[in-house]
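[Discussion] Sanity-checking designs against the backbone

I'm trying to build intuition for which residues belong where. Below is a structure token string of 197 positions. I'd appreciate it if someone posts a full sequence so I can compare it with mine line by line.
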């Protein structure tokens, strides 16, 4: 699809409420092969456009089994340094602690860079899926970097998440992103189906 979109929340600096977005979704299959198929499609698209040096930033956010345990571990770590966190991170710590990992504030980064990582706390199924994704990207010679602080901006993501960055394309260098959102369809429409896009 290719269509105009509207941001619900207040747009970040350099972004507009209305923007155009293209996307690809695969609904109905929970497989790391689908994750890599869509990421391959995105990379092929940018390579054909002549975008210089596109690279995938990659992470796993775990599942309903391993993520709650990781959140407890992260919150415990961050609460020890809560007074050193910026005001926004103190709010995030209560609402969505994973978003603290995404903070760009230098004071926060000093503590965040030593935080426990989700990739080290994945359950066996999520760890296997994440290893499979990396193996398949290697087989296809797709450039990627495991980015353990990547959480994406939307709370409905789980499992594999990614962003595509390229030099000289935008001020933030991120030109695409997405991931697995297996619980979103049930949350908004009572349809129990896996999805990646």
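Best answer:
Here's mine. Compare freely.
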């Amino acid at each position: 699809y290719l269509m105009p979109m509207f941001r619900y929340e207040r747009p970040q600096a350099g972004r507009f409420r209305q923007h155009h977005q293209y996307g690809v979704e695969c609904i109905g299959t929970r497989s790391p092969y689908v994750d890599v198929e869509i990421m391959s499609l995105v990379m092929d698209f940018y390579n054909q456009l002549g975008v210089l040096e596109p690279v995938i930033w990659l992470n796993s956010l775990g599942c309903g089994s391993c993520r709650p345990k990781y959140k407890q571990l992260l919150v415990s770590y961050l609460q020890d340094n809560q007074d050193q966190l910026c005001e926004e991170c103190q709010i995030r710590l209560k609402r969505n602690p994973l978003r603290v990992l995404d903070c760009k504030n230098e004071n926060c980064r000093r503590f965040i860079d030593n935080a426990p990582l989700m990739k080290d706390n994945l359950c066996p199924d999520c760890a296997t899926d994440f290893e499979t994704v990396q193996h398949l990207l290697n087989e296809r010679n797709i450039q990627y970097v495991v980015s353990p602080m990547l959480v994406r901006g939307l709370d409905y993501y789980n499992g594999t998440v990614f962003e595509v960055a390229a030099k000289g394309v935008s001020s933030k260098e991120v030109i695409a992103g997405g991931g697995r959102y297996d619980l979103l369809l049930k949350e908004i429409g009572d349809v129990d189906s896996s999805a990646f896009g």
